[in-house]
């Protein structure tokens, strides 16, 4: 059974950095792209970025480009989201999802439980 577990969220101040992790189990992790999404309170879930199976190709939403970096460690079955220069508008629950190449949440079938990131001004 596929399981994705996010961690690393918290309360930070604007301008701070935070690294989220997503640990995967129940699958051959190195065979899949992985994506990150986020959902602010009262808003739709939105695409953040994704990384290919080998980690040498990434794509990001314009809102986070240049500030967020996705990486992965296939030996640890883990994908990371490094978030720098955080802004209050980055406040959301962050989710990892199995797969990639698509920006629509409904195209993904396996999700983690999410981790809350709150950025104070």
Helical stretch tally: 0
N-to-C CA distance? 40 Å
Helix vs. strand class: mainly beta
Question: How much of the residues is beta strand, in percent?
Answer: over 45%
3D structure, described in words:
With 121 residues, the chain is mainly beta. Helices cover 0% and strands 47% of the residues. It has a six-stranded mixed β-sheet with strand order 2-10-9-4-5-6, with no helix packed on it. Strand 7 and strand 8 form a beta hairpin. It is globular and about 40 Å long.
Give the gist of this structure:
The protein is mostly beta strands and 121 residues long. Helices cover 0% and strands 47% of the residues. The chain has strands spanning 3-7, 10-13, 18-25, 34-39, 46-51, 58-60, 68-73, 78-83, 92-98, 115-120.
Keywords:
121 residues, mainly beta, six-stranded mixed sheet, four-stranded antiparallel sheet, 0% helix, globular
How is this fold's topology laid out?
Elements: E1 3-7, E2 10-13, E3 18-25, E4 34-39, E5 46-51, E6 58-60, E7 68-73, E8 78-83, E9 92-98, E10 115-120
Parallel strand pairs: 2-10
Antiparallel strand pairs: 1-3, 3-8, 4-5, 4-9, 5-6, 7-8, 9-10
